[in-house]
Design brief:
It is a single chain. The chain is mainly α. The strands form two sheets. Strands 1-2 form a two-stranded antiparallel ribbon. A hairpin with a 4-residue loop joins strand 3 and strand 4. Helix 3 packs across helix 13, helix 7 runs antiparallel to helix 8 and helix 11 packs antiparallel against helix 12. The protein is globular, with a radius of gyration of 29 Å.
């Protein structure tokens, strides 16, 4: 019997029907899953990104000072954590982000590139009495910070270049009797810590004792004029650095702190009644109606440094935090130019001032760091990005303006917020609670002792270091705490203060690593 004759055309048609049937079958069963996937909320789409926002800024540099070579271990910016970035719309939420949802710092790579490109330009710039040069706004500090951040000692040549003029030819030759807007102690402090050069310490003391308005602390109420805000802020900086160096006569609290808080109070009251930043009630004698946001930024910088220093009582820290927290959003609302995405220079002329954005944005990162309020993060990011992308760095002064304080912005901005209650409440943060629990159970330690160490201003790494070093030192813990607070680096603390040898320091470092892994919840 002969089977049916199937032509090529009939065979092709049969195959097409079978394929069509299979496609329909797959569509039927996959459609519900496609619909459900399309309806997922946007915030559930999470991308995990490993970012190292800041390299570990601990390096050893051979620094020539007074004919001697000193090895200085520096540690300004700690290693950045791995961050999980979540794509989400937070426009309807004022709640704090968590440590796992910190967005990347905008334009950070541009900030780093500009730092290197323009820093090289001013590395050997001749210095003399001209405020347009890199010494103005503390070029010594700027170059030390770049060296620490990049872990490249080449930048120290810039610090020395500025020191040779500002310290040796200007401050010392005038016994510190400088105008109030030219007082720059932090670079001198960094140089003394790194090199031990006594001339830098002497210069700090000269500025603190003899700089303009330094002798007016006994009648500080006479300096309540907000037109002197920068001079008061700079005097606070000098006093705090002299106190940090243990200079006699600077052990108490600076009366000028209350003057700066009064200035902040005056600006806050004005902005409450004039949220648009107009009708300034304290006109400048030269420029008329003239509130300058960057001047307020310098006041906040000085007060924040008071909070960050050791030995300041928690009540004063909280007062400073509350005052800045109330003032900062008012200033942003009044001074922000939406179309230009920057602050105006002054309340009268209102021209954009991107060159000055990085003198202001760190105070918002600091508020974010101690409150977790995401609105401060957003304000700071907008100012930072505008300053990085919009500032002209073609002058040494402008370069120092932009890198004087912005390293602290990066440091505070990259870290998870410590707490929601300000510096005084940071003691109860999750990280510190873990620290107290772990270290407080170690031999010779108690939770109460760890809390005391935190309250005195020791950071987590310092506390771990003190505990590990206690096994190799005859000093009791209170003496170790005091020694660590006075020492500027781990190397100075272990080698110069405790006189530990190389093998002992190595053993301390190894135990540190074990405990840090324990604190992070990982097995040693």
């Amino acid at each position: 019997m002969t089977g049916p004759d199937i032509s090529g055309r009939d065979c092709e048609a049969s195959v097409r029907k079978q394929i069509a049937a299979i496609v329909m079958f797959l569509l039927f069963f996959s459609l519900p899953f496609a619909i459900n996937s399309a309806n997922l909320p946007a915030e559930s789409k999470t991308t995990t990104v490993e970012r190292t926002l800041i390299p570990p800024a601990v390096y050893s540099a051979d620094i020539a000072a007074s004919g001697n070579t000193t090895t200085a271990e520096r540690s300004l910016v700690p290693p950045a954590p791995e961050v999980t970035v979540t794509e989400e719309d937070s426009s309807d939420s004022d709640t704090a982000t968590t440590k796992n949802t910190i967005p990347p710092i905008p334009s950070l790579e541009d900030w780093e590139d500009n730092m290197k490109t323009y820093g090289a330009k001013y590395l050997t710039q001749a210095q003399f009495m001209d405020e347009n040069l890199v010494w103005y706004y503390d070029g010594t500090k700027v170059f030390y910070q770049i060296a620490e951040y990049t872990r490249n000692k080449t930048w120290l040549a810039g610090a020395k270049n500025v020191l040779n003029w500002y310290r040796d030819q200007y401050v010392i030759k005038n016994n510190g009797m400088l105008p109030g807007w030219r007082l720059f102690p932090h670079g001198l402090l960094m140089d003394f810590r790194a090199t031990g050069d006594i001339k830098s310490k002497d210069a700090v003391v000269m500025l603190a004792k003899n700089g303009a308005f330094a002798g007016s602390r006994g009648a500080s109420f006479k300096l309540n004029d907000v037109g002197l805000s920068r001079e008061i802020a700079y005097n606070i900086n000098c006093y705090e650095v002299a106190r940090e160096l243990g200079e006699p006569g600077f052990s108490g609290r600076d009366p000028f702190i209350d003057v700066a808080l009064y200035h902040l109070q005056q600006w806050t009251g004005w902005l409450k009644n004039n949220p648009d930043g107009k009708k300034y009630p304290w006109p400048d004698k030269v420029n008329g109606d003239c509130f300058k946001p960057f001047m307020a930024g310098l006041t906040c910088e000085a007060l924040i440094r008071v909070c960050e220093n050791n030995g300041v009582d928690s009540g004063k820290k909280q007062q400073i935090f509350s005052a800045i927290k109330e003032f900062a959003p008012m200033m942003f609302k009044a001074a922000w130019i939406k179309g230009r995405r920057t602050f105006w220079y002054e309340s009268s002329k209102r021209v954009p001032a991107a060159d000055l954005s990085l003198l202001v944005c760190p105070l918002y990162a600091w508020l974010w760091h101690y409150s977790g309020d995401v609105s401060f993060l957003e304000m700071g990011d907008q100012l930072f990005e505008n300053g990085v992308m919009g500032a002209s760095l073609d002058g040494g002064k402008q370069f120092s303006q932009n890198y004087r304080w912005s390293f602290d912005y990066v440091k505070w901005r990259k870290e998870p917020p410590l707490s929601a209650g300000g510096p005084a409440s940071a003691l109860n943060s999750e990280a510190n609670t873990t620290l107290i629990s772990v270290i407080g159970k170690k031999p010779g330690m108690k939770p109460k002792l760890v809390r005391s160490m935190l309250a005195k201003g020791l950071k987590k790494d310092d506390i771990v270091l003190c505990y590990c070093a206690s096994k190799y030192s005859k000093l009791k813990m209170p003496e170790l705490i005091s020694a660590r607070l006075k020492a500027s680096t781990n190397y100075e603390f272990l080698n110069k203060v405790l006189n530990l040898g190389r093998d002992e320091i190595k053993a301390v470092n190894e135990e540190e690593n074990v405990i840090k892994k324990e604190l992070n919840g990982t097995k040693p």
